Amino acid sequence: MPVSDYERCDLCQEQCGFDRAQEVRRVNCHVRSHRQDIFTVWRCPSCSSLHSKEAVDLAKYYADYPLKKHKPTIHTHIAYRNRHRLLKRWGLGANNSILDFGCGTGLFVKYMRQRGYQVSGFDAFVPEFSDSQALARNYDAVLSFDVIEHLDRPAELFQQLFDLTAPGGLLVVGTPDASGLDLGAKIPPVELSQPFHRHILSEQALIQIAKRFDLIPEFAFRRSYFDSLIPTVNMRFMWAYLNASGGMLDSMVEPINWGRVLRSPRLIFYALAGYFLYEPGNMIIAFRKPHAEALEVRRAGNQ
User: Fold this and answer.
1) Main-chain dihedrals φ then ψ at residue 289, nearest 5 degrees
2) CA-CA distance, 289 to 30, in Å (whole number)?
3) How many helices (H) and strands (E) does the chain have?
4) Would you kindly state where each structural domain of the chain is located, as residue ranges?
5) In what order do the strands lie in the sheet with 199-200?
6) What is the assigned CATH class of domain 66-180+194-301?
7) Choice among 10-14, 78-82, 264-268 with the minimum mean pLDDT
8) How far apart are CA 263 and CA 270, in angstroms?
9) DSSP character for 2?
């Protein structure tokens, strides 16, 4: 019987599958309406990426996906400010054309436009940003935050993002880092997010895919863009609060239960000091697309 696409790793191009996995974990769906559903996550022994084993009807689960109700908050404002600072540090300015691919409800697109940036957004599942005309040109920078882990074919997304990036431009990918997630932890990492996260890449696997397109890793930021010194605005607190709320992602879009926080010394501690106690498990890598001449030279040298 052939191995299904969900029982093999097509990221590292090694002959690795679920049958060779030494790390496997059963994980409940962390959306309240589907919390009784259980899924299998396994780690590729070659590239350390994580995979969701079961094929599922994702439309059924996305119908109740809490982050569709995502609205601006102090947390998102600070997270977007941190993203903005990274992009400025990496050389992007208001004169550069930028595409936010998989922009969701477009909160970051609107944040950047308010600061004078030329930002377009595309998301096939959000009517306001589903116009394919946004994909009919190249951009100085293509951003894709928290998208690639949701797709069954990560390499196909890379091809699309590569084609949208202008020669000499930046392709920026933000995603969980599988190599920083412990499948053996007492409480499963929130980033497993089953069944929504189909493939969680390790940094090694992400760079390997990029190399197939001759993309050069130029900048890296290896922590969550939600981390700040402002109380409660850090991933350590946010994930601890989620787990204290029954592990349901729904709690992230509901008003914070301050009574729950104030009754928990642990949550108070993380609210104040979580920035200094971050755990690996997130990454933002910026790749440079070579100019046409350099690309031809590189590819000729690889033949």
Assistant:
1) -85, 120
2) 37
3) 9, 10
4) 66-180+194-301
5) 24-28, 38-43, 50-52, 199-200
6) alpha beta
7) 10-14
8) 13
9) P
